[in-house]
Specification:
Blueprint lengths: L1 H4 L5 H9 L19 E8 L2 E6 L1 H10 L1 H7 L6 E10 L6 H10 L2 E11 L10 E3 L2 H13 L8 E4 L5 H17 L4 E4 L4 E2 L2 E2 L4 H10 L5 E2 L3 H8 L6 H14 L3 E4 L36 E8 L10 E7 L8 H15 L4 H28 L16 H5 L10 E3 L1
Parallel strand pairs: 3-4, 3-6, 6-7, 7-10, 10-11
Antiparallel strand pairs: 1-2, 4-5, 8-9, 11-12, 12-13, 13-14
């Protein structure tokens, strides 16, 4: 799945990145703030002049009083307020660069936390940057909490997190936010690896399984990640549905599996319906089409659905013949956005999310072809054309052959 290349391509790479991470002392560097004057002018016209008093006591008195107004300012939009914790690159589109803009277009107030900040994604071969630690994340959380700014979150989205300390801090943060808002929706993309290869330290698998998965409202693993989290080998659609059920029992009400490469179930009719998967993760309906040319997504929810929608569904879409990064991150953000707009109809929301993603990829592929025709080449030609795809993100057209198929 292309999204995995946009993060750390091996555990060794993560270790190398940590070596250039932020030191504790560096964590205090930031935007310079003008220090307050030692004195301020208080109530004028006392005996015809200004009375000069120290500022310090006034600051102490107003600090606690400012918490309530700050919390009031942090109220969510009519759509919601989302905290998104994942990677960031200065140039290109992966992680939060793929999530923030689409969520804002869909009406969310979005607050990003950067699990890494790199010059560019690792598909370029070389990069520079820093990796956030659990201690640094905790410091940010404490700053938000001291000002009453943890209140008001309706959604949390997490993607690539490369260290055990940060992942455990994320778990504590989600519990804290859910205590403030029991209706908090947590969409977790458990970025662990793909095609049998881990992209993160092996210890993170157990932390996800024991601490993160039980907290998630929606989980969006690929095939390899679902196998790691459940211990179930996924070869057929029946296996995939069994893995979904195992994940439901672990906590998440909704599960969307991606990047499935399935064999045909012996009892599956050959003329079963199609659905669309997100182009990000390419799978194909193995009963009707070759997985080399199509991409399949399979979803399941334990929540009662509206409008006659089934709790389980499949979507299959044509595979676009190119390699893109950031598609997994974009897909998770779109699933969050569309499921908020179309509640209790996960299949319909996934259909919209997939159509949006396919539209972005088609526009990106066209731009890539144009660039290559003019003599340009390289991975930069394949960066997602996200800003140019506002219509696709907001008003996606669902192809007739890529509609959701309901499963019994």
């Amino acid at each position: 799945r292309g999204r995995r290349a946009n993060h750390i391509s091996a555990t060794a790479t993560v270790s190398a990145s940590v070596r250039v991470g932020i030191t504790p002392s560096a964590s205090h560097r930031g935007v310079p703030v003008r220090a307050p004057s030692a004195f301020s002018v208080a109530r004028t016209r006392q005996l015809g002049g200004a009375r000069i008093v120290p500022t310090a006591r006034r600051v102490r008195r107003s600090a606690s009083a400012s918490v309530a107004p700050a919390a009031a300012m942090n109220t969510a939009s009519s759509t919601g307020r989302c905290l998104t914790i994942q990677s960031h690159v200065v140039s290109g589109y992966v992680g939060n660069k793929c999530a923030v803009f689409p969520l804002q277009l869909h009406g969310f107030d979005v607050d990003p936390i950067l699990s890494v900040q790199f010059s560019n994604h690792t598909g370029y071969g070389s990069w520079k940057g820093e990796v956030m630690t659990g201690e640094q994340l905790q410091s940010i959380v404490e700053g938000l909490e001291s000002n009453g700014l943890l209140e008001g979150y309706t959604h949390v989205l997490t993607g690539y997190i490369g260290s055990a300390s940060m992942l455990r801090t994320v778990a504590r943060l989600v519990r804290k936010l859910r205590a403030l808002n029991p209706a908090l929706v947590y969409v977790c993309d458990p970025v662990l690896g793909d095609n049998g290869k881990l992209y993160v330290p092996a210890e993170l698998v157990g932390i996800y399984r024991d601490d993160i998965v039980p907290l998630a409202t929606m989980l969006t693993p690929n095939q390899f990640e679902a196998e790691l989290l459940t211990g179930v080998t996924i070869a057929t659609e029946s296996d995939a549905l069994g893995a979904c059920q195992a994940l439901h029992e672990a906590g998440p009400a909704s599960v969307v599996l991606t990047s499935l490469d399935l064999e045909e179930d012996a009892d599956e009719p050959a003329d079963g319906g199609d659905t669309a998967d997100d182009a990000k993760k390419g799978l194909g309906n193995p009963h009707l089409r070759s997985h080399q040319s199509h991409i399949t997504l399979l979803g399941s929810t334990s929540t009662p659905q509206l409008g006659g929608c089934s709790k389980r569904f499949r979507i299959v879409v044509p595979r676009i013949p190119s390699y893109f990064t950031g598609t997994g991150d974009l897909c998770a953000a779109l699933l969050l956005a569309w499921s908020a707009k179309i509640p209790d109809r996960l299949g319909n929301a996934a259909e919209k999310a997939v159509a949006s993603l396919q539209g972005v990829l088609r526009r990106t592929a066209a731009a890539q072809a144009e660039a290559e025709a003019s003599g340009k080449s390289g991975i930069g030609c394949r960066e997602l054309r996200l800003v140019q795809s506002v219509d696709e993100l907001l008003r996606p057209e669902v192809d007739e052959g890529a509609r959701v198929a309901w499963l019994e």
